[in-house]
Amino acid sequence: MQIAKLTLSRTQMLVIAVVFVWWVGSPVSAPAQSARYAVPKEHPRLLGSRERLQQLARSRTDAYKRVVRVARELEADDHSKMISMALVCAIEQDERLGKAAVQLAMKYVTGPIKKGHIPFGHDLARCAIVYDLCYEYWTEHQRRKFHEYMNKTVDANVRSESHVFHNGWYGYKNWGIGLACYATYYENDRAPAILKALEEDWRTRAAPALDMAGDGGGWAEGYYINYWLYEWLFFCEVARHCQGVDYYMQAPKFFENRAVAGMFETYPGVRIYTSRRPIPIGDGGGRVFGGDRDKTLSARRILVNRFRDDPSHQVVHAFSELTPRSSVGVYAYKDFLWRDTTVKKGDLQSFKLSHISLGPGYLYARSSWDEDATYFFFKCGDRFTAHQHLDVGHFLIYKHEELAGDGGHYDSFGSRHDVNYHLRTIAHNTVLLYDPSETWPNIRAGDVSGNDGGQSHAWPHHNGAVSDPAEWQKRSHLYDIADIVAFEDRGPYVYTAGDCTRAYSSDKLAYFTRQIVFVRPGTFVIFDRVCSKNAGFKRTWLLQAMKVPIRIGGHLVITNGKGRLFVQALLPHNPQVRLVSGSELYSYGGQRYPPTRETGSAPKCRVEVSPSEQKACDYFLHVLTATDSNTTSVGEATLEVAAREVEVSVGETTITFTTTEIGGSIAFFGRRRQFTNKVASEPALSTLQPHLDSTFFSTKNLP
After folding, report:
1. In this predicted structure, what is the pLDDT of residue 5?
2. CA angle 381–383–388, rounded 5-degree value
3. Average confidence (pLDDT) over 356-370
């Protein structure tokens, strides 16, 4: 990943937590890290003793009332119903409810053994919770059947979901196995050995993967973290409670930053059913409302409870408390278990406005913590797993609504649309370089027929996935494809730079670097250098517009709901600008790749900007301004081009980029500051006032 070559403080990157919290909301003091102890012999134990659960019912009365209603009155999916019934049974020692929960569990216990890429872990988990919380209402015969079902499921899935960078690295599978082991620890002879094997695999393979691909709290798999992280955290809490095992401290670069990154991975605004939408990264995307939004909320809560004495986590708690209830009513048990209002609230409004996660190469920034803030995301990182896209250099811009989005639909993994459009570079806000002779192997076992001119898919496995950190390191020359090489947040502006070169075939590309200056509250200046190895290869700058733009003066204007994005192309001179929409949107190279189904609101137009002249190297310079939709115009940016630099002026701000290296400067009111040559993990808001002089250094000489 070449992160070592950057100048940055790892101490700043980590949110250091020094107090270990015993259990979510528990009045018991925290044990030391080394204080592993024997699993309690009595039931219930997974979620605490009966007395602790009864105490929670008294202190979290509103949430508990809703859990009772789900358990006794409401229609619900088996997962929610069984967990709710088991909780109420344990708290109130309700025999009728307990026996009813056992009968629901027996449907899975006596059913076929599931294996492979289906959520068998969820089946195990819900049955384990019922086994533990309703233990006295299982007959001996039923308990033995559960042990047999558990052991056979484990044996059938030894090789299932074994890639630790994939599917939330284990939330899909091992949370269920782990809960079943703790639930049956003394009754099932195999439980201790299975649990020991799980922990060893986690320690040697999965934890290093988290700290590699999740350094800073982002996760290279992208949106899939919203589907599976919550389950793994559920298991981590059970392990801490039942045995004093702290999985968090085995991957601190991820866990100590994940709650903060998770907060930054939501678009501004509280929307449908008082939920927040996570941003789209890779597969998935949450364009329509789903239970994954409640999982992200609960995941943040679990981590906040664990690191409750850390000021940053207290800020995350304040943020989460703006949406205090799960949006799905039958998920009341999540609020009951994880929402602890005794955590101190931090000052959200004074918290940093940007965050970087170098593991996946993610940068997040906002104009403020107001719900109508402008939002920005930039991606420039390495390859780890199948759910990633060929989208190095991609960015998102949001103001009231998505304005620059993520193209295509995740209609099916490996579909014709998926492998030829949705995951390909053409569906993202980055750059194409068209070599007519270039070909791609099949991706995700799907039939690749399109040459979009995008990034390469040059990995041994058709999914583009790697099994664990050892394999990644062995073939790092293949997977180390991009770096964020500069980042600073000075308050009035955020600056970042990315080297995207290695994401493309070396047969066609000499270099592609991207520099972005986000001038708060809503202006983005994007400068790209693209140099090909053949002057005849067409170069195209892409923008995925959520609505078809119209022309107003020298701008293309994208309006989506209450948000508007003004786009001005300054370089190349006299560009060819093509708006691709309607029936042509999912077409290129004479072929059509329409989705088999739509997955919600997606970009309606692909903006393509190409130079009019053929030459080996081109500069692309765009100014994008995000505003309210009632804004009818923004000021024209002006450009001056010299031999080794280009200068763009936007209002009172002047930005200069050098053309021979990654670097430049920014001036406020005539006083200049050069851009930094490093990745600064924390915003240095106190070091710059708009009138002060400053310098931002070059980071890399270019050919």
Report:
1. 31
2. 90
3. 98
Residue 563: both structure tokens together:
């948000």
**Partners of 526 in the beta sheet?**
516, 622
Looking at 305, 320, 350, which one is the last position of a domain?
350
The predicted pLDDT at position 12 comes to: 31
pLDDT of residue 19: 26
182 and 272 fall within a common domain: yes
Kindly give the interhelix angle for 140-156 and 174-183, rounded to the nearest 10 degrees. Answer: 150
3-state DSSP assignment of residue 597: coil
Distance CA 373, CA 377 (A): 13
Q: Is 388 inside any structural domain?
A: no
State whether 437 and 323 are in the same domain. no
Q: How far apart are CA 15 and CA 313, in angstroms?
A: 9
The reply to whether 559 falls in a domain is yes
CA dist 381 and 359 (Å) reads: 7
Amino acid at 702: L
What confidence score (pLDDT) does residue 35 get? Answer: 80
* Residue ranges making up the domain that contains 240: 3-350
Q: For residues 145 and 40, state if they share a domain.
A: yes
Is residue 579 within 8 Å of residue 638, measured between CB atoms?
no
Q: What is the mean pLDDT of residues 524-549?
A: 97
Q: Are residue 340 and residue 435 in the same domain, yes or no? A: no
Identify the CATH number of the domain in which residue 472 sits: 2.70.98.70
Q: At what angle do helices 78-92 and 95-109 cross, to 10 degrees?
A: 140
- For the segment 467-492, the average pLDDT, to the nearest whole number, is 96
Checking 186-190 for CB contacts under 8 A at 24+ apart, the result is 186/39, 186/41, 187/143, 187/147, 188/147, 188/150, 188/151, 190/147, 190/151, 190/154
Q: Is 465 found in the same domain as 340? A: no
Which amino acid, residue 685?
L
Listed residues 306, 324, 350: the one ending a domain: 350
Report the pLDDT averaged over residues 531-556. Answer: 96
Instruction: Classify residue 674: in a domain, yes or no.
Output: yes
How many structural domains does the chain have?
2
- Note the pLDDT of residue 101: 98
Q: Is 377 domain-assigned?
A: no
- For the cut 80, the answer to whether the pLDDT of residue 596 exceeds it is yes
Are residues 184 and 331 both part of a single domain?
yes
CB 362 within 8 A of CB 384: no
Evaluate if residue 24 carries a pLDDT over 80.
Answer: no
Residue owning tokens 């993520």: 406
Residue 683 is predicted with a pLDDT of 46
Section 242-252 average pLDDT: 95
| Residue owning tokens 């809560």 | 301
347 pLDDT exceeds 90?
A: yes
Average pLDDT, the chain: 91
CB atoms within 10 A of CB 341: 11
- Residues 464, 327 share a domain: no
Q: Enter the tokens of residue 490.
A: 């000075």
Give the 3-state secondary structure percentages of the chain, helix then strand then coil, rounded to 5: 35, 20, 45
CATH number at residue 72: 1.50.10.100
624 forms bridges with which residues in the sheet? 524, 567
Number of H helices, E strands in the chain: 18, 26
Residues 344 and 446 in one domain: no
Q: What is the pLDDT of residue 349?
A: 97
At 668, the pLDDT band (50, 70, 90 cuts) reads: confident
Question: Residue 655 — φ and ψ, nearest 5°?
Answer: -120, 130
